[in-house]
Amino acid sequence: MSALEPLLSVEDLQVAFKTQDGFVPAVRGVSFDVYPGETIAIVGESGSGKSTTAHAIINLLPGSGRITGGKVLFEGRDLSQLKRGEMEAVRGKEIGLVPQDPMNSLNPVHRIGFQVEETIRANGLATSKRDVRKRAVEVLKEAGLADADQRLRQFPHEFSGGMRQRVLIGIGLSSHPKLVIADEPTSALDVTVQKKILDHLEHLTAERGTAVIFITHDLGLAAERAENLVVMHRGKIVESGPAREILQNPRHPYTKRLVSAAPSLASQRIQAAAATGAPIGSVEVEGEEPTLSLLTVAERAAEASVDAPPVIEFRDVTKVFKIRTGGPRSIPFTAVDKVSFQVPKGSTMALVGESGSGKSTAAKLLLRLEDITSGTIHVDGKDITELGKQELLALRRKMQPVFQDPYGSLDPLHNIGNTIAEPLNVHRVGDAKTRKARVLEVLDQVALPQTVLARYPNELSGGQRQRVAIARALALKPEIVVLDEAVSALDVLVQAQVLNLLAELQSELGLTYLFITHDLAVVRVIADHVSVMQQGKIVEQATVGEVFDNPKTAYTRELLAAIPGVDIPLGA
Amino acid sequence: MLWYIVRRLLQGIPVFFGSTFIIFSMVFLTPGNPVLRMFGDRTPAPEQVAALEEKFHLNEPFLTRYFLYLGDILQGNLGTTYAGQSVNEILARTFPTTLRLALLAVIIQLVIGVLVGLISGLRKGGIFDNVSLLVTLLIISMPVFVLAFVAQWIFGIQLGWFRPTVGAGAPWSDLILPAIVLAGLNMAYVVRLTRASVIETSQNDFVRMAYGKGLSRGRVIPVHILRNSMIPVTTNLAADFGILIVGATVTEGIFNVPGVGNELFKAINRGDTPEIVSIVTILVIVYVLVNIAIDVLYGVLDPRIRYVK
Amino acid sequence: MSSKNPVRTAPHYVAEVDEGGLGAVDAVRVSDRKSNLWLDAWRDLRGRWMFWVSAVIILFIVFVALFPGALTQVPPNDNCILSVKTQDQADALGVPIGTRISDHGPLPGHPLGFTKQGCDVFSRIVHGTGTSLSVGIIVTVLVAVMGIVIGAFAGYFGGWLDSFLMRLGDIFFAIPYILAAVVIMSLFLHDRNIWIISLAIGFFSWPSTARILRSEVLRVRNLDYVMASESIGLSKFRTMFMHVLPNSIAPVIIISTVGLAGAITAEATLSFLGVGLPNNIYMSWGNDISAAQTSLRTAPQTLIYPSIALSVTVLAFIMLGETVRDALDPKARATR
């Protein structure tokens, strides 16, 4: 094995996108090797150029992208110089692709069988009609779909996300390629599904000695799945090498920040940043040393808050929706099923669950955006389902939401100042002057400069928008903030920043949080109590420490095991 | 799929009743006695008026009259013109010609429109694309009668390639020029819609995956790009058909094609309200049926919509 | 860790820390220009030649419509003569007595020649501008108001109101609006005017606008900022007016600009069919084109010039619609 040659050798790769202002570089001199049978992960935040690098290798850049320099040597041939026909012969047969978004990567108008079979024919794996069909069944079976014969006749929309990704893995590996490019193959899936799919992919590729380039934004996931890492930032490689070594001993400042900010790698709850003397505002200063680690100060005494009276109390709360089917009738669907929990004042309750678990519906019930079917919700001892118009308005003043989508949570046509002032105007708080002062005050609390007041949301980044949303929520000095997946869409560094901000505001203002999330890793750093939801029911409820150290139900254990990188021991 | 078709047909029922009711109301709720209107500037004898009022059930209550009118239509009795001709006979005589003209126009519009749109979309920003955008813009800006006159003048009179008006029996060769004119506007829309749709489809992840799994361009373009781009083009056929009906009226009038549109054109010029209403009612019913057929076709093309909603 | 056996030990590479590479996480770049949908759209419009061409043509059309007298002193309808009979007429036109003026070509002071009735083509075109534009504007406003009200209510309040309004839309949509207008206009034989023809065209063309606005409202209604506003206590009506409608209106603006062109075409088509505006009271390009049909072989100018005026007007509004669409709809821009 001494004369081992790399299977793929990327040398000084440059990629640029054509825009109105000329070519904008996206990948700037990237070099790495992939040896036969090894798994290498390219890690980076959005915009780091990791996916672009992957697409450049098999020459599938979007229309405006061009390889402007460097070589992509695959078994000694420079792929960037191949003619179209030659490249088509390499794709699928020599280099397989497992794409990013299973929901959109299968053509919705063709049956699954058709899409598997055309791959088999295109790569010359079988020619006769019967052989092609036989091979297609095999492909689906290998991908882990049991009733493959049936499945071939179905359309993609009849499949769940996980099943679609299995089909795509089957297609990508169908001709036993030497290299597979897996481009964020599970970022759209629930964690438990993610784990199963990745285990399966790993099993198949290990069995066949397939090399894998694994693209991901999740450092923990990358370290768990690959021997070697390539960390990218702004189109360049900042650090590369053995996964464990990088995680335990990151040397580049950017990698250090990534490692310390990754919630899946952190272990304990954030304490108020103020306690460490690192003001949040410092992140604004260009070039300053990073202060963004999820501060793992000694776990806060959760018992203290247990004694406080519950601010929010759910009692047997049930919500039934009527789902319209294609047929003449509608069927009832219980989204939230007899859910009970209490949130003590000044603490954080996390509602955790996978998609469809009913956690967001629970939040909407609390916010009175949906009507409850049965049960009661008390806020400050008052039943909120029986409020008059005035009382409801008073409740809304006490309780403010922050939603998930940083691009959808602010009205694009209102400037930041008006957005933050809106709750003050609705509730007619003070006069114009005091409102203005309050807006400036909360802006300061979320560490945004006054210059953003006249700006519009599309001028801000996702993290900044979420901070504006938090500022708006704080404007009325609420007691309760409902955070519905409020940090889920953010890149890891920005996510850490917002989490720190939330923790600091809580300790400063005595806020009570209801924190809705699918990400157990985040729960550990922000919550005091956890309620794990599955199919509308709460399956486990305890303090964060208990849930993580001593999970009682199988489902919680499964969720915990699925947190990527959870077993990786970290260095100092 | 069956349930989907049944649902579409059921949805067509209120549309049928609603649209016929609206046409009926427009005619009979208009101020002035419709019988007197029939005579234009002449003054009929009172007994003549009474007889006609009796014949048209004008003394019955409004809703009764509507159902009588509906019954007549459903039984295929479309009444007579002022001149006493049976509208049924007129339609039987003229419909086949219009059908041939419309068929020719739809074929031209789809074949040329989709082809040009596809090439434009695949070569976005190229010379072909820019020229086709410009030409379609010009066509869209020209009302159909202007287009008809321009075509008649250039190809019929100046160049003499076609006969400027259609001869007896309306042979296929004479129908080509009117069909091109009739197809023109919709063709421009089809080009633009296909182009936009091809560009949008090409950016989909499944197209990238199709290339990624090793398919050649010769397969990806027809099977994954064009096939999916046809969905919005099909949906839009309904609106196209509305334009086609109006266009046929004008085109047949100008080129003297002996079709339904020409008959309507003449009826309008004569001010023959009963004939106008009968023909319009029939055209609306045809339009509703074509819409249902297009919806079913849409369901065939896009498996998703057969299930959801 | 991966279940595979490592095939090699990769070297641990660390890049140099470059100057611009890192910096602060998520710093606010305050030097940028202000930007939101409308500002961006305006910047985009400003840079397009098609926008300026269409804007100049439209401004010119509006000017002609408001002040036809600025372009021609010749009356469009009076003093039309089939042939020159008196010496005065002969002097004025510079041709001998007995010359046929009907369908005559250009003469001094009459740059585009004469119609079959012997009226000045140029003057009729100039005076017809106002008719076309008025009908276009009235129809567009009517359709936009009906479409917005119906679409917004259906989309925002949903439920049975939505079902009812949309079925109603289906019914109106099932009648091609020009056919409906033909029926209406053939019923109003004696008192046709600009308002009647605008109503006839507009009353059956609102469903498209309503559908587009409805689907846009449905999209916006589910966005987080709408939920956020409701949950801070903003009433449903105020949420609709402050957040939902302003964010749903762009497609209506696009369709209205193109619809204005459609309304002008519709008026001309109805006039061409003979159920348009009465020829003795209103100048209408459609009427003139219709009247000129019989002279296509002998005097094509009587047909061609009004056709050009009509097409250029329609073209200007369609071009404006296209540029506005590109400016307002990022998806459309991507397909450019």
TrEMBL record, chain A:
InterPro entries documented for this protein: AAA+_ATPase, ABC_transp_ATP-bind, ABC_transporter-like_ATP-bd, ABC_transporter-like_CS, Oligopep_ABC_C, P-loop_NTPase
Matches recorded under CDD domains: ABC_NikE_OppD_transporters
Domain ABC transporter: residue ranges: 8-259, 312-560
Recorded GO MF terms: ATP binding
Keyword terms: ATP-binding, Nucleotide-binding, Transport
Leader sequence segment: none
Domain of life: Bacteria
Segments passing through the bilayer: none
UniProt KW Transport keyword: yes
Pfam families attached to this UniProt entry: ABC_tran (PF00005), oligo_HPY (PF08352)
Protein name: ABC transporter ATP-binding protein
Lineage: Bacteria, Bacillati, Actinomycetota, Actinomycetes, Micrococcales
TrEMBL record, chain B:
Annotated localization: Cell membrane
Bilayer topology: Multi-pass membrane protein
Membrane spanning stretches: 12-29, 101-119, 131-155, 175-194, 237-256, 276-301
Domain ABC transmembrane type-1 residue range list: 95-298
Main location group: membrane
Record keywords: Cell membrane, Membrane, Transmembrane, Transmembrane helix, Transport
Domain of life the protein comes from: Bacteria
Membership in a protein family: Belongs to the binding-protein-dependent transport system permease family.
Name used for this protein in its record: ABC transporter permease
UniProtKB/TrEMBL annotation, chain C:
Domain ABC transmembrane type-1 intervals: 129-321
Listed transmembrane segments: 49-67, 133-156, 168-188, 194-213, 244-264, 303-321
Subcellular localization(s) per the UniProt record: Cell membrane
Classification via Pfam families: BPD_transp_1 (PF00528), OppC_N (PF12911)
Gene3D superfamilies associated with the record: MetI-like
Keywords carried by this UniProt record: Cell membrane, Membrane, Transmembrane, Transmembrane helix, Transport
CDD domains, per database record: TM_PBP2
InterPro entries, per database record: BP-dependent_transpt_permease (IPR050366), MetI-like (IPR000515), MetI-like_sf (IPR035906), OppC_N (IPR025966)
Topology versus the membrane: Multi-pass membrane protein
Family membership: Belongs to the binding-protein-dependent transport system permease family.
PANTHER family named in the record: ABC TRANSPORTER PERMEASE PROTEIN, OLIGOPEPTIDE TRANSPORT SYSTEM PERMEASE PROTEIN APPC
Name of the featured protein: ABC transporter permease
